Structures are given as structure tokens and as C-alpha cells.
Amino acid sequence: MTDQVASHVPTQTSVQSILGSVKENGLNIWAALLGLFILLPVGSVLWLALSPTDNVWPHLIKYVLPEAFGTTLWLMLGVGLIVFFVGVSTAWLVTMCTFPGRRFFDIALLLPFAVPTYIIAFSYVEVMDYSGPIQSFIREIFGFQTSRDYWFPEIRSLGGATFVMGFVLYPYVYMTTRASFLIQSACALDVSRTLGAGPTRLFFKVAIPLARPAIVVGMTLALIEAMNDIGAVTFFGVKTLSFSIYDTWLNRSSLSGAAQISCAMILLVVLLMFIESYGRRKQRFHQSTGAYRSLPNYTLSGWRSGLAVLACTLPVILGFVVPASLLLDRAVRRYEELFNPTLWSAAWNTLWLSGIASVLTVVIGLALAYSIRLQTTPVNRALARLTSIGYALPGTILAVGVLFPVAALDNVIADSARSLFGISTGLLILGSGAALVYAYVVRFLAVSFGQINGGLGKISPHLDMAARTLGSSSSRTLLRIHTPLLKPVLLSAALMAFVECMKELPTTILLRPFNFETLATTVFNAASREAFEDASLPALTIVLVGIVPVIMLARTSANTFRGKMTRTRHNCAPDCRG
Questions:
Q1: Is 536 inside a domain boundary?
Q2: Which is more confident, 392 or 286?
């Protein structure tokens, strides 16, 4: 009997050891699976590009890539200059200067973020085209008969695309730079002023170097969005790499050719990410104190005040007021479209797709962030970086990468169902919209993960220790303690992911099921056939829904800073002496 017990003990020990090892490495297994989930589209694109079924690469190199690559670079250069000057200057004005309407502009400058680029694009085409109100007014006033009688800038051009996209994408730089200016040490700025630095010198010599990492991040996001765009460049007749992928895939029926162009875009994305990382090298600025107080504002008066108001007004007018006014005017004219079942069907498709995707991004982002909080390993750290790849990938590339593995899985399911049950399921995943949800989650997981990870970082680790001491498991601690504390962050992450999914056009166009429309594709289809009034109501719906989280985001960040500033209003002065 003793021998039997003795022989049984090693077996129990082995089982417990195996279970303990599995439990210990469970988070790493979860991290590896999630990494595969995110990287699968990228691997699919590379595989398709390296094993083409048709040899279109010589044609692409000779006729497509040179023009598309050059056009994309010029577009990114122009957009980069606009978003830099507009975003940085307005962020400096609203955080460091006092002038009439400052609090209003603090939020209003974010409004163009709620408007998709393709909506602003077709709005400006409608306003500035030959038959639009501006040119019609010019012909009526001066008696011109044709376009040859006068000169007017051509909106359907690379210059027009650069101008419009610059004034809709500058909020990326404005948001990051504004946040950087808000948390910059008032002590450092005070010392600079004490040493005789004026406003201009303080701006260029102190504030800009301190904010350089934030500026680079904002510009990188804006440039990736510009490179990713399909709708705006299509309306303006600009053939970028993103447009070439769309054209090669759908019009030339060459998926491998689209994958090969996608590789060129991946190289550009990697280059941008390298520049962003290089721009932040050795750029680590920390507060020597936890104190916050009002930054040393400059009171503007006279013509300086007028220039500040003008500098903040123009981006809001060009990026939001003009397109929103046009959409409202056209929507009122076509109010009967409110009773069109096609519109309601597109709205319902948009809601359920964006809703499911946003919930999944929050759930996966929460699980990933919590696993990193519990066990920081090289795998988890690498995974935290991988989550940004999905957001960095243009929607066209992501659609190409998702289509191949999902279509292969669909074929496996269909063959199995046919052989086992004698039924045909068809394209079950692609046809149901599940592939589109998968693409949304991969694309926008970084949006949720970044906010949730930041929110978890503000919760004291002592709460975890206390919960574990009282016998609570990790999952129970997450559900009962962390989740209630993170409710505002989770809501904000879900709203941002929802709006991003609702606005996403390239992925939706390429992966949507047949005879399946969303608000974004309805706008694109109507604008493509020059039926701008038909596009106005769904476009206005997207804009109105997008405004809500944008305003919430602006108020949350401002209130967070003011709360910290109020709690420590008088604590900064002693640290300045150090």
C-alpha cells in the first residue's frame, strides 16, 4: 500500500507541475495567439505578393508604381506641412495665450476630426467645381460665359487634395501637441522667461523641443491617414498608391498585383514608423515635480489678438463649417430621404458592424492590457508594440491581407458542410460581414488598447495586492475592481473605436458582402456618380455622430489637467528653485 502511494505521488506532482506551468505561461500563450491574430493580415499580404498567380509586377513597375509612388510622396509632403503649421500654431495659441474665444477654440479646433476626409472632399468638389456656387457667383458678377474667360484653381487636382486633407487631418497634430504643452513644466517656462526669453524665442527654443515627440507622433498618424485614403483621392482624381491598390484589385481583377503594391505601401509605413521612433530617440522629458499650475500665458491685444482669432477660425471654417453647412443645406433639400428604407438599412448595417467591432476591441484591449499588468514579459512587451501595426496599416492593405485567409477558411467550411451534411454554406464569413468585423478589430485595436493601458497605469498596484491577499483571483479582481474604476476609459475607448469603424471606407468597400451598404459606402457611391444631394444625409449622420466623442475627448483631457492643477496649485514654486 505504501509503495502504491509512493508511486502515485510523483504522478500527482507531475500533473501539478504541468498545470502550474500552463497557468504560469497562460498569459504568454494568450499574447502569442493575439499576436498571430494581428499579424495574420500582414503575413497574407507578403505571401500573396511573393507567390503571384499572374506576372503583373513588370507592368506595375513600369506604368503604375512610379506615378503612384511619386504622387503619394508629394501628397504626404504637402499634407505634412499643413498639419504641422496649423496643428502646432493653434495648439500654442490656445494653451499659452489669452485672446477672445480661446475656450471655444480649444474644443472647436478638434471638430474636423469628426468629419471623414471623403466627406470633406466631395463637399469641396461640390462647392468649388465649375457648377458650384463659388464659380457660378463669379460668372454672374463679371459676366463670364465659360471657364476659359477666367482663372480659378482646379479643385480636382493634387493641390486640391493636399489642401483639403491638410485641413481635416491637422487635429492629429493639434491633439498631441496641445496635450504636450499642457503637461510641460511651468517651472521650465518660467525660468526661460526669467532669463529674458520672449514669446517667440520661448516657442522655438523651449516649447517646440519639449513637444517634438508629440508633434512627430501626430504627424505620423496624419500622414498614415493621408496615405490610406481612397475616397478623397478618388473624388479629386489623384492616383496614389492606395487608389492603385483599389484599381488593380477591382478593375484589373489582380489580387496579387494589389498585394505587391501593398508591399510598397508597407515600406512607406515602416519608414514613417522608423522616422517617428527616430524622432523620439533620447527624447524623454519628465516632471521633477508632480505639481501643476497655470502655464505662463501671454495676453494678446490689438492686432495680435485679431491674428490669433483668425488663425484659429480659419481651420475650423475650412475643416468643419464649410462641409457641415453644405451637408445641412443639401440634407434639408432631400429630407424625404429620411423615409428611404435603403438609408435605414445602411444605417443599421453601420450600427451593428461598428457596435460589435468596438465592443470586441475594448474586450480584447482590456484583456491584453491586464495581462501585461499582471505579468510583464518580453513577449507581452513585444505584443504591446504589435498592437500599433494594425492601426498603422492602411485599410486597403488590411483588406487584402484579411481576404485571403478568410476566403480559405470559408472554402474549408463550405467543403466540410458539403461532404458531411450535403449542404452548401457559401462564403459564410465573408458573406455575413464577420470578415469586416475582424478587419475593424485588427485596424482599431490600438485605439482601445492605448487608452485602456493608460487608464490601468493610473490604478495603484496596491489594489491588486489587497485583492489577492483577500483571496480574489486575477479575473475576479479585473471584473469587480478594475472594470468599475475604468468605466469612463472603457466608454471613451468604445466611442472612439465606434466612430473610427463608422468612418472607415477603404476596408469597408473592399470587404463588404454583395449588396451590402453602410453609411460610408452610401456616401462614396453617391458622390462617385456626382449625386451629391443623395450623399448629404448619410454624410451628415456620420458627422453628427462623430462630434459626440470628439467633444467628450476634449473636455475630458482639459478637465483632467485642470483637476491636477487645482489640487497642486501652490506646489510648483519650491521646485523651480531646484
A1: no
A2: 392
Place of cell 478593375: 251
- With a CB cutoff of 8 Å and minimum separation 6, the contacts of 265 are 227, 241, 242, 245, 394, 396, 397
∠ CA 354-265-515, nearest 5°, is 40
* Three cell numbers written together for 11: 504522478
The contacts of residue 452 (CB under 8 Å, 6+ apart) are 362, 365, 366, 369, 486, 489, 490, 493
With a pLDDT cut of 70, the percent of the chain lying above it is: 78
| Cβ contact 157:237 at 8 Å | yes
Distance, in Å, from the CA atom of 421 to the CA atom of 429, rounded to the nearest integer, reads 19
Per residue in 319-347, pLDDT (tens digit) is: 999 888 888 888 888 777 777 888 888 88
CATH number for 462: 1.10.3720.10
Q: How far apart are CA 315 and CA 310, in angstroms?
A: 9
Question: How many structural domains compose the chain?
Answer: 1
Q: Which of 192, 199, 320, 254 is nearest to 55 (CA)?
A: 254
SS3 labels along 410-446: HHHHHHHHHHHHCCCCCCHHHHHCHHHHHHHHHHHHH
DSSP 155: S
The answer, yes or no, to whether residue 194 has pLDDT greater than 60, is no
Mean pLDDT computed over every residue of the chain: 77
The cell for 227 is 496615405
Count Cα atoms within 13 angstroms, Cβ side, for 392.
23
Half-sphere exposure of 135 (CA within 13 A, CB side): 20
Q: What share of the chain is helix, strand, coil (3-state, %, to 5)?
A: 80, 0, 20
What pLDDT was estimated at residue 86? 94
Beta-carbon contacts of residue 543 (< 8 Å; ≥ 6 apart): 114, 115, 119, 323, 324, 327
What 8-state DSSP symbol labels residue 168?
H
Residue at 505 is within a domain: yes
Q: Which of 81-95, 146-160, 390-404, 493-507 has the lowest mean pLDDT?
A: 390-404
Mean pLDDT of 114-120: 82
Q: Helix/strand/coil (H, E, C) string of 316-332?
A: HHHHHHHHHHHHHHHHH
Could you tell me the pLDDT band of residue 83, with boundaries at 50, 70 and 90?
very high
Q: What domain range is 398 assigned to?
A: 343-516
Question: Does 11 fall in a domain?
Answer: no
Residues 23, 199: Cα–Cα separation, whole Å: 58
Contacts of 406 (CB under 8 A, 6+ apart): 429, 430, 435, 438
Residue among 76, 13, 386, 372 nearest 228 (CA): 76
In a domain, 127, yes or no: no
C-beta separation of 502 from 449 below 8 A: no
Work out the percent of the chain whose per-residue pLDDT is above 90.
Answer: 9
Check pLDDT > 80 for residue 572. Answer: no
> Which residues, in sequence order, are bridge partners of residue 298?
97
- Chain length of the chain: 578
